[in-house]
Amino acid sequence: MTRLPRTSRSTAGFSLVELLSVCGMLVVLMAMAVPAIGDVRQGMKLGQSMRTVERELQAARLESVSANRPIRVRFNCPAAGQLRMVELIGTTSEPTAADNAAASVRCSETTYPYPARDLNPLTLPNHDGPVRRLESTVSFGTVATLEFWPDGSVHKAGSGSDQSWPVVSTTGTSITITQTMNGVTQTRAISVNGLGKIQIQR
Q1: CATH code assigned to 36-200
Q2: What is the separation of C-alpha 36 from the centre of its chain, rounded to a whole number of angstroms?
């Protein structure tokens, strides 16, 4: 009778010490990644707010040209961190009291609903947009109400006068947006020039 050779047992596998070492390394790596994930989230919220403002400015410019009406973009209106595109009720040379640069009533969706009740050109406004809100950790820094004209030009609220706002210079004006999160403050800007060029500053 012939005997079959004995097969040796496989010794493949991990010891307890090896498993604990790998788990320890994973914990260290995850602890290092948590602040980086927070930074990414912070950057995403700031970027989203920048795009919201940039889209609203582009929409106001397009609406002004297509509707042949002056359109303003008001910031921190009706509250901090909010903005709204509103149609000028009066004219650029003779704005109504509601169009006053300091009047926040134009941002009220109760008084001036979106969408408009009708599109009758005799009952303005017809081209107001909804109130837009920035992310909760984001706020406006330096801002001034901008006015887009049907000819494509952009005007900025003048000092002390509501009549015939001056055109923005070719070097442009900046809308700054600030975010403070976990003690870290970041500021970004959107540039708008008098010819209607709108650009997020990198």
Answers
A1: 3.55.40.10
A2: 23
Structure tokens given for 31: 């602890």
Integer angstrom CA distances of residue 13 from 8, 10, 21: 15, 9, 15
Instruction: Say how many C-beta atoms besides its own lie within 10 A of residue 154's C-beta.
Output: 25
As a whole number of angstroms, the distance between CA 88 and CA 72 comes to 7
Strands 173-181 and 154-156: unpaired
pTM for the full model? 0.76
Both tokens assigned to 199: 């650009």
What is 115-134 written as a DSSP string? S-S---TTS------PEEE-
Instruction: Domain ranges for the chain, please list them.
Output: 36-200
Q: Which amino acid is present at 64?
A: S
Report how far residue 92's alpha carbon sits from residue 124's, in angstroms, rounded to the nearest whole number.
Answer: 14
Please report, to the nearest 10 degrees, the dihedral formed by the alpha carbons of residues 141, 171, 87, 74 taken in order: 10
pLDDT tens digits along 150-188: 999 999 987 545 567 889 988 899 999 998 877 888 899
Residues 6 or more apart whose CB falls under 8 angstroms from that of 108 comprise: 78
